[in-house]
Amino acid sequence: MPKRTDYISWDEYFMGVAMLSAYRSKDPNTRVGACIVSDANKIMSVGYNGFPAGCSDDEFPWEREGETYHTKYPYVCHAELNAILNNEGASLRGCRIYVALFPCNECAKAIIQCGIREVVYLSDKYAETPSTRASKRMFDAAGVQYRQLDVRTPSITIDFARDKV
Which of 12, 63, 67, 80 is labelled catalytic? Predict the structure, then answer.
């Protein structure tokens, strides 16, 4: 019997892990996950956007508009930074990070500083914003590669009730 030919690529697999991680986010508007992977295709860490540990998601604001202090923006930790901080101390030098949304400038700084060499993303919907333009400028200067994922498999469904081994 020949092996299956409809299996997903490594890129699709790791992006799937990032997207599944996003389902842990409690943000009512934006759910982003990240997955950091070594050059040997080993998962080093995952993260999703949310408040720092000890900051209750019931007590801090989720609003997107209004006075900055009363919005989510000064409090939410992005998925990329959470994945970097969730790593158990192993070097991330030379790793790849998979993320659904192109990283902001603050996450780009952390990505560069920890030695991640490649960013693989799905969406660049904020491409023209100063934050994303700054990210790309820093990535280019630091030699961090970035590419949009070219998917062969447009969707994957996980059915916990049906997919029993």
Answer: 80
* 49-56 CB contacts, 8 Å cutoff, 24+ apart: 49/22, 49/25, 49/76, 49/77, 49/78, 49/79, 49/82, 50/24, 50/25, 50/26, 50/76, 50/77, 50/82, 51/75, 51/76, 51/77, 52/77
**Phi/psi at 81 (nearest 5 deg)?**
-65, -40
pLDDT band at 163 (very low <50, low <70, confident <90, very high): low
Q: pLDDT tens digits, residue range 60-119?
A: 999 999 999 999 999 999 999 999 999 998 999 999 999 999 999 999 999 999 999 999
C-alpha to C-alpha distance for 116 and 109, rounded to whole angstroms: 10
**Would you say 33 and 79 are in contact if contact means Cβ atoms under 8 Å apart?**
yes
Selection from 10, 104, 130 nearest residue 49 by Cα:
104
Q: How confident is the model at residue 26 (pLDDT cuts 50, 70, 90)?
A: very high
From CA 95, how far away is CA 86, in angstroms rounded?
Answer: 15
- Interatomic CA distance for residues 152 and 100, integer angstroms: 16
Neighbours of 87 (CB within 10 A): 17
Active site residue 12: no
Length of the chain: 165
